[in-house]
């Protein structure tokens, strides 16, 4: 069994810390760092830290793309990227009093390169897992996610989807193994804005009724809710000092998959997932295995009695 992650629009995450950030002024950073990023790439990095072999797929280009390839190689992560003309985007993560993000657009991807990626998806085998994560570069429309999900379905490959907008909406029909919307993305899926726990439960259940196998609605510092046809589990996140929450959601996906492939019971896989998300939020880079293990006992999980 192999896990593949696919990031159509990777990024170099440029994290800039400053005591105060004022628009229209010269601001000086107190600290800057670069990380290989993009949602699927984050999932790959966390899986590797949790000792789960995986292969990262996607498009990279230019010096920023090379940085990603080099960093993943340094971390011994297998990759099978398609190199495209243009530059992989640089996403700015500003850490002032609050976290502000400016994500780039990403390079133009030609039809030839899109086909090359579909060919790679066609090589994935029954029993493997494919994680489709992140936004699409502007030259690729949402039907590309549909094409990949169709290929996966034909081959009985379990699909995990962590994206937003209409690509996420279209994923439901393919009965994915796991969806991980945050509260806002869950609302977007149904064209509503969600303000209460009651609404999260209502719409999370609807996804299960539509055939999605597992749904994790992530709620940042408030934890997460897991939906499955037999059970709904509510997790409180551990308390701690947030250093950089970029990639917390991706770490949840990786944590859940790592525990799942190690055949952990559902509740333990969910605990691992929440601990991984929080361990990332409490770290500058993504979580480490030790960081996840330290938080496991601080994740409180309760069962909602009226299951779906
Ligand atoms: N402030 C926090 N305190 C504790 N845990 C947190 C905090 N923020 C995030 N987490 C953990 O990370 C998980 C995912 O966070 P969140 O809901 O922000 O995901 P997301 O919106 O997908 O984030 P991203 O796109 O940055 O990866 C939460 O369910 C929680 O376990
Ligand atoms: O623009 P997208 O693809 O929606 O999100 C990209 C991104 O914000 O997501 C990751 C965190 O989840 C970061 O590594 C990256 O910069």
Automatic annotation (TrEMBL):
Its EC number is 2.7.1.144. GO terms for molecular function: 1-phosphofructokinase activity; ATP binding; tagatose-6-phosphate kinase activity. GO terms for cellular component: cytosol. It is an enzyme of class 2 (transferase). It catalyses: D-tagatofuranose 6-phosphate + ATP = D-tagatofuranose 1,6-bisphosphate + ADP + H(+); beta-D-fructose 1-phosphate + ATP = beta-D-fructose 1,6-bisphosphate + ADP + H(+). One of its GO terms (biological process) is small molecule metabolic process. PROSITE patterns: PFKB_KINASES_2. InterPro entries: 1-PFruKinase (IPR022463), Carboh/pur_kinase_PfkB_CS (IPR002173), PfkB_dom (IPR011611), Ribokinase-like (IPR029056), Tagatose/fructose_Pkinase (IPR017583). Keywords: ATP-binding, Kinase, Lactose metabolism, Nucleotide-binding, Transferase. Pathway: Carbohydrate metabolism; D-tagatose 6-phosphate degradation; D-glyceraldehyde 3-phosphate and glycerone phosphate from D-tagatose 6-phosphate: step 1/2. It holds the Pfam family PfkB. Residues 8-284 form the Carbohydrate kinase PfkB domain. Catalyzes the ATP-dependent phosphorylation of fructose-l-phosphate to fructose-l,6-bisphosphate. Belongs to the carbohydrate kinase pfkB family. Belongs to the carbohydrate kinase PfkB family. LacC subfamily. This is Tagatose-6-phosphate kinase. The lineage of its organism: Bacteria, Bacillati, Bacillota, Bacilli, Bacillales.
